[in-house]
């Protein structure tokens, strides 16, 4: 069993154990709160655990081979290094809870129906309202309940971080907590920038649309998907500033490439693989780099029609196909593929020169290709 697989199993077990421990707390307040545990369990049972893996390999990348026992990466034991490994698993688990919270809130903002092949949280609460015969508006009830579920997941992620860091030395605890706090602020503000672009684009100068779309990628996704998890793992072990700088130089361009791939999948992805309807980003009106690049090559008339269709939640399959063809014919999809390749190359170049442990560099290079060559 590989280290990444073993880490994933530990995180999966941690998630199950944490939620099992929280179930009695929920129902001790009111039996009606049980869905919060069940819906959280369903959501957290899916996903690829990329953030947990980057956190783990960030930790491994600064761990000296001569002080690393086999137990550090292969299981809980009784050695002194196991205290830090337990903290690492807790931190990885916290990242998964934070990611789940972000997904719940993102689906509400985007009015998405599905997530990971299942109904989105607000749709599940909406169905609960309908099936129970409650009064009032089911959609409003679903949104309000899911907002609170996302808040609860955020609270739980913070609880997991606190528990994980308690056993660390003060310097590592402070540095890791500071990094986690920065990540939370950046992704929250990045989410607002995404909302902003969907509404503000008509009054933004044409030349600024692409850099503003790139800004959304950096703060909404790239930093918290790759860069921050890497640095969190490294900080937990007391990484040097040179090592942290090297991990950032690798993580940021890779995170950008990761999100650019996500943007392509949001328009062209197979719903059977992505767990979301094909063309979902087109119905949501996402003002991505892909869209900005497509608009650059369109005539004024074609651009006007494109803009009128983009963001219509009632787009038919035929209209989705038309928008997909427009983007393809514009050359934007090919340009995004080129951008992905360039950012991956930048990341791998930085990784090759980084003062990091060789086994981790090999694994990180493999992860870089895995997250940017995926189809889901």
UniProtKB/TrEMBL annotation:
Record bears the keyword rRNA processing: no
GO molecular function list: metal ion binding; prenyltransferase activity
Cofactor field: Mg(2+)
Record keywords: Magnesium, Metal-binding, Transferase
Similarity comment: family membership: Belongs to the FPP/GGPP synthase family.
Annotated organism of origin: Subtercola boreus
InterPro entries named among the record's database cross-references: Isoprenoid_synthase_dom_sf, Polyprenyl_synt, Polyprenyl_synt_CS
A Pfam cross-reference name: polyprenyl_synt
Protein name in UniProt: Geranylgeranyl pyrophosphate synthase
């Amino acid at each position: 069993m590989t280290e990444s697989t073993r880490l994933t199993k530990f995180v999966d077990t941690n998630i199950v154990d944490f939620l099992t421990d929280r179930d009695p707390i929920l129902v001790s307040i009111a039996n009606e709160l049980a869905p919060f545990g069940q819906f959280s369990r369903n959501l957290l049972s899916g996903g690829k655990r990329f953030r947990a893996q980057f956190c783990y390999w960030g930790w491994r990348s600064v761990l000296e081979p001569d002080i690393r026992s086999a137990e550090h990466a292969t299981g809980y034991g009784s050695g002194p290094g196991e205290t830090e490994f337990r903290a690492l698993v807790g931190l990885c688990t916290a990242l998964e809870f934070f990611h789940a919270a972000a997904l719940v809130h993102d689906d509400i903002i985007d009015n998405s129906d599905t997530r990971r092949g299942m109904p989105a949280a607000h749709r599940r609460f909406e169905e609960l309202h309908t099936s129970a015969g409650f009064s009032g508006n089911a959609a409003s009830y679903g949104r309000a309940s899911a907002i609170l579920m996302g808040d609860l997941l955020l609270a739980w992620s913070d609880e997991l971080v606190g528990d994980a860091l308690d056993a660390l030395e003060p310097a590592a605890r402070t540095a890791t907590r500071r990094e986690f706090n920065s990540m939370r602020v950046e992704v929250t503000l990045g989410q607002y920038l995404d909302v902003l672009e969907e509404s503000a684009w008509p009054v933004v100068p044409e030349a600024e649309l692409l850099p503003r779309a790139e800004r959304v990628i950096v703060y909404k996704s790239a930093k918290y998907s790759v860069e921050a998890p890497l640095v969190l793992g490294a900080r937990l072990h007391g990484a040097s500033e040179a090592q942290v700088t090297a991990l950032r130089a690798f993580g940021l361009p890779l995170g950008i490439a990761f999100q650019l791939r996500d943007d392509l999948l949001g328009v062209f992805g197979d719903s059977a693989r992505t767990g979301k309807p094909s063309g979902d980003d087109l119905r949501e009106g996402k003002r991505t780099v892909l869209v900005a690049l497509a608009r650059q090559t369109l005539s004024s008339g074609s651009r006007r029609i494109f803009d009128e269709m983009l963001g219509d939640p009632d787009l038919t399959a035929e209209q989705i196909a038309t928008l997909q063809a427009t983007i393809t014919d514009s050359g934007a999809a090919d340009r995004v593929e080129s951008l992905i390749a360039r950012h991956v190359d930048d990341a791998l170049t930085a990784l090759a020169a980084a003062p990091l442990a060789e086994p981790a560099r090999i694994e990180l290079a493999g992860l870089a290709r895995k997250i940017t060559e995926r189809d889901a």
